[in-house]
Amino acid sequence: MSALRARYLGGCSAINGTLIIRGAKADYDRIATLGNPGWSWEDILPYFKASETFHPAEWHQSDLTVHGTSGPLHTAPHDPVPISEKVLDSFIDSGFEYKPD
């Protein structure tokens, strides 16, 4: 199993393919409870949806209720790679909750 590494500005983040990612619902809700109105998951979700056009993949368990259909950023799940699947399996085996989308 190969694990690509990069030796240039940005390092591995320059080749990992994660171009867009959101925080967890609980994190946004926590930000709101700390005195930041308008930052709860329910408050910010419409902005996430407005910013993207999501292209689901047949193999991915996508929750289409949290994705947009007409925004300027075209997003899609990437194809899984063996090392990512092994890391994910180890997290699940360690008791972490898995949310596919």
TrEMBL record:
Keywords: FAD, Flavoprotein. The keyword Transport does not apply. SUPFAM superfamilies: FAD/NAD(P)-binding domain. Its cofactor is FAD. GO terms for molecular function: flavin adenine dinucleotide binding; oxidoreductase activity, acting on CH-OH group of donors. Pfam families: GMC_oxred_N. InterPro entries: FAD/NAD-bd_sf, GMC_OxRdtase, GMC_OxRdtase_N. The keyword Flavoprotein applies. Residues 4-75 form the Glucose-methanol-choline oxidoreductase N-terminal domain. Belongs to the GMC oxidoreductase family. This is Glucose-methanol-choline oxidoreductase N-terminal domain-containing protein. It comes from Rotaria magnacalcarata.
